[in-house]
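Subject: Protein record for review, amino acid sequence with backbone structure tokens
How to read it: Take the token row as a discrete description of the fold.
Enclosed: The protein record, placed directly beneath this head.
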Amino acid sequence: MKYQSKKPRFLLPLLLLVFTLSFHLSCSNGGDPSNDLSKNPQHKPEVGYPAPGFTLEMVGGGNVVNLSDYKGKVVLLNFWASWCFPCRKEMPSMQELYQIFKDRNFEILAVNLDKFGKEKVLSFVSNYGLTFPILLDEDMKTALSYEVRNIPTSYIIDKEGIIKEKIIGEKHWTEPEIVNKIETLMGS
């Protein structure tokens, strides 16, 4: 006797319908074209595209910072957390880089992703002697808009707001290659 499947005949069409609907919904942007990075490249956090805008609060002062405030400056945008060992390791060289260029058309914006509260971040900033702006991304919206999956992740943004480099992982920020790149971008 041959084995006969007892599956209902409508199962395959039903599965195809479910797959089609789920595929359509996963590709849908809810009618908002700004949510679709492939169709709206001005929000794509990649080299050659304008850096996504954001507004974040500075730690300690409560001042609000908007990326657009830095148009005309080269910006090193760094995503980090105090519990991240590679982040802690690169901070002293980031402070050195800031000291080199702080009086020129350059800014470092370090976006903190800690969930431990402002006091922990303030303690970290004090212990490391950091003098560049530290911003809080408590709801992680900015990190999500930059598609940050690993920290540290950094972006070098030119004076026109275009991403020139994306760096994932720890960096020694005073390496000649980086210093020369920033010098070149400031001179253009």
